[in-house]
Amino acid sequence: MSNQQQEVYETIKWNGWGDYGVEMKLHEKNQFWARHVDGKPIKNLMNFIYNEIKGGKGPIEMPPPTPSITLEAAISMLSKPNLNESFLKELGSALAADQIRTDGLSRITHICGKNYRDLWRVRRGLVERAPDAVVLPNNHSDCVKLVRLAQTHNVVLIPFGGGTNVTGGVECNPFEQKRMNVSVDMRRMNRMIKIDKKSNLATFETGVSGPELDDQLFRYGFMLGHDPDSYTYSTLGGWIGARGSGAMSNQYGDIEQMVVSMKVVTPTGVVETPLTSRVCGVDLNGLFIGSEGAFGIVTEATVKLEPIPEERIYEGYLFPSFEVAFAAFQECNAKGIKPCTLRLYDEDDFRMSTAMSTSSHGFLEKLIGKGFKAFLKNQRGWNLHKVSLVIVGFEGTKKRAAFQRAETAEVFKRHGGLGVGRKAGESWQEKKYDLPYIRDFALGNSFWADVFETSVLYADAIPCWLAVKAAVRKVWEEHGQHGWIGCHTAHQYKFGCCLYFTFASSQGDENDLKVFLEIKTKAMEAMLKYRGNLSHHHGIGYEHVPWMTRYMGPGAMNILFDLKKKVDPKNICNPGKLLPSLPKEGEGEDALAQRQAKELMFDKMGIPGAVKAHL
Amino acid sequence: MSNQQQEVYETIKWNGWGDYGVEMKLHEKNQFWARHVDGKPIKNLMNFIYNEIKGGKGPIEMPPPTPSITLEAAISMLSKPNLNESFLKELGSALAADQIRTDGLSRITHICGKNYRDLWRVRRGLVERAPDAVVLPNNHSDCVKLVRLAQTHNVVLIPFGGGTNVTGGVECNPFEQKRMNVSVDMRRMNRMIKIDKKSNLATFETGVSGPELDDQLFRYGFMLGHDPDSYTYSTLGGWIGARGSGAMSNQYGDIEQMVVSMKVVTPTGVVETPLTSRVCGVDLNGLFIGSEGAFGIVTEATVKLEPIPEERIYEGYLFPSFEVAFAAFQECNAKGIKPCTLRLYDEDDFRMSTAMSTSSHGFLEKLIGKGFKAFLKNQRGWNLHKVSLVIVGFEGTKKRAAFQRAETAEVFKRHGGLGVGRKAGESWQEKKYDLPYIRDFALGNSFWADVFETSVLYADAIPCWLAVKAAVRKVWEEHGQHGWIGCHTAHQYKFGCCLYFTFASSQGDENDLKVFLEIKTKAMEAMLKYRGNLSHHHGIGYEHVPWMTRYMGPGAMNILFDLKKKVDPKNICNPGKLLPSLPKEGEGEDALAQRQAKELMFDKMGIPGAVKAHL
């Protein structure tokens, strides 16, 4: 590796989503419009903001810009790195000089993930906990050296993939200021190591991003079939660490169905899980998938491959309500009808989608045109406030896709669904990676937006959907604020599905994050009440740790504590993520509970000064 | 529970498969025929025995009977039970008197599983290591009491489900003679605890057998969809313990796709895994599924339910060879064509199936009729020695089943497959639970038969299939013996499948088991050479422990050792199964390796006197 090589993090915004230069902007001529990342105008933006986010109150006008501080300013505000000189000296002998970075740009670009809480903080200069250094391993062997030296010198390691994490998985634990914290940027490790075309398997280094991975497979006629919203930037290792899932998971599986075996570098040795067509005995993959790097660094993974499908059909349906469409989904489930993609946007999410439509004669706009609305109301007798959108996708041979499409259509139509054609599907495909840009636009213009998701059993899906939205709205109400929240369901299992919430409100003052964290907390309580889990595919990270003991139960938690102690006795692997603090020698139950409660200070992160005062 | 209740084990043969009275017998009129369990004559038996098992050598005659010792004799040969009186006293206060059995019948019926090695031993009176007592818990709470007392009094617990295990999973560890050994018969725990019809989930006690489980679901319109050959007798807990799989796994999943959450009673506490539509964070189910009771007793499990299919079609195809049919399977796999059941019997397995055909105008017999053979040879140009049979099944809605059938037929026919109709499918369905009865018949008539399976990646499937058969035949050759071995493949995954071997030979002398164990060893080496695993669905038990460290690798093994120490510090949970002996305090690596090697005395089990001499 030469010093001239440009690292991925140098090309991606330090304080927002995507490459520099790609962003949603205010329209230069019409103050009520914006331009999407593709340059096309969004004409209905102001209406949506006024009616949905501001609750029809206040002036109908674009609010003032709320710019981020500059990169230079952020770098100047970084604390002096806490460098473990003996570690760095030995590491310097083991790796090349350009693999070890302690400069401001490297540190600031690895400070956190990309959710609202992350960006709110860095945009305002709350950059006190950047990693002390960034290390760039070139391969598995580099990782072995790095972990060994970190173990010897008691240095904290935080694996860093695409940096797209939204649950606090890549930030430094505020309680780890005494030890040096190293962000391990895996993105140089982006190679396919081998491919077994007969067995449909390939082994990759885990720093490979979505496009890099598929590009290496396409030439052999294969793909992975993993398509999360973060696809462009996120990495195989990140998908494994957060137990990711993509938009076509119904057909190609979640990440745990894709990963067949792994190489994990733990502080106490390398663990390789067997490469086999089906596990025999017990399965250790489940301990590392979703582990957030808390047990070590996953350096290589063998994944199953899918042939590139002959046919891809994505199309839309409208339903009179979320509940009606949900019932249609249930019938498909009972009949074994399993489209590759099956997404249902509730009335609020649907209105957001149409508001964000860009094309002047766009498909989604047509759906909210007067003529069509009159048809739905008068001919169909629908309540227009309840109309929900379904995006359904079929992939495979031409025959399979056609058959699945026909059997799905039969069920959908019998439940009152109205096919609205392939434009809806294309429109979804086109825009599916763009939501984070809208979030950044909001942050820059006096608004904010964020997402969270859960996974529920079918019996709880409708009550959970209602309860979460009600809980979030109640927080706004109690604070005299307005906001918008929508939900879609995707990732259908035989016994349950994912509910994914998107929500937005106006920026106020320094207490914004306090309200936001209250929303997250109340929403989580609502989800748990309906047996929802902590996250469907965004992971546990830092933000969901407060609920881990409750979710897992004490018996399971003890096993995980023990595993952590065994493989990572010094707790150098991404401490504070996945699990709360481990019991200390001789520490009583009460003392432990108190200490854990103190450390799980989710409600203090991002409140200026709160962390410092709390430590 | 009353004392009058008949326990399941009282109704099942102590020294063979199935209920008393159901068995395959010699035909009373024709010395070359037998009667199958359904009473129908098997006319081709002698030909098969002569040509295939005896290698066309020796007299064409039915060999002499080789009867088992009687139940009474076996009971009289049991050693005096090693009873831990203080344990029994406390247990007697916690449970009802009829839940604790130390009588000879209870002990002899829980001595081992049902493979050839097991039955060979008990039929000859090698009954020295029966459990000291049998305990019959009525519910989860009984199991909690039992495990707590066993932990206090250092008593070994061996969970016992249907007793159909074929890998030594339920026998006492010969190195555990100093401690009392209790077989925990779970079969009273056969209730459905709750059903969630909306979410397609039901919670069962794990002692429930296949028919008991489905009977409780049928009334709600559901089934589990798990259909192993042992279905009639094996239990949910056994399927979990051995990581089982059934004949329709392609559609309904292996047991790990069916079990959503579990309650596990370990010596250090109860562990419940979360009930969720998809795991978040890390997944502990994989640690208990396939664990052979080595971490505790799985008392309850929530499983996903399948609607009872509208249509079920099972039919047969002939292919000119195993390799050609395998190529057709590969094309189906690449195209996403996934029949519920997809089984391919190689030429040897096919000949065995036809030889065992019962109906006088039976379907399979017709396939080996002269006219049909001539057609295959002359019209199709097939080598009749290579003809292989495929059984393919489709389940679901009528439309889905018809579509899948058509797309499968298209691929099969293009590869030269010849449809032979639904009779082939019905014939397989009818006979699928009967193989163990043939094995028992062999044991009673101077022959023996057994099975083992592995799971391979597709790239290795054909070489592994050839290598295993060659390895087994070589052992026979080296011992101047003859035998028959056939193979079928089933359970298709995206990247590999199961290879299932059935083999038989003549009984000789007391060294039979030595030859058999050599076969198992050589076959395992051949499987491992081609990256096959230790077992596809029969589990690890006792017999596969010698290869566990090699299969799992040292890193993974250390994690399992640690987990075992954590949840079962006294090693009371089915010791000697799943894992080799744990390192002892202060024990050096060499000493450990030597001790483990001594304890992994797979090659001595069943050799009269060898165990005793070895301990």
Automatic annotation (TrEMBL), chains A, B:
Q: Where does substrate bind?
A: 439
GO-annotated molecular function: alkylglycerone-phosphate synthase activity; FAD binding
| Annotated keywords | FAD, Flavoprotein, Lipid biosynthesis, Lipid metabolism, Peroxisome, Transferase
The coenzyme or cofactor needed here is: FAD
Which domain of life does the protein's organism represent? Eukaryota
A GO biological process of this protein is: lipid biosynthetic process
The reply to whether Membrane figures as a keyword in the UniProt entry is: no
Pfam families given in the database record: FAD-oxidase_C, FAD_binding_4
**What name has this protein been given in UniProt?**
Alkylglycerone-phosphate synthase
Q: What is the lineage of its organism?
A: Eukaryota, Discoba, Euglenozoa, Kinetoplastea, Metakinetoplastina
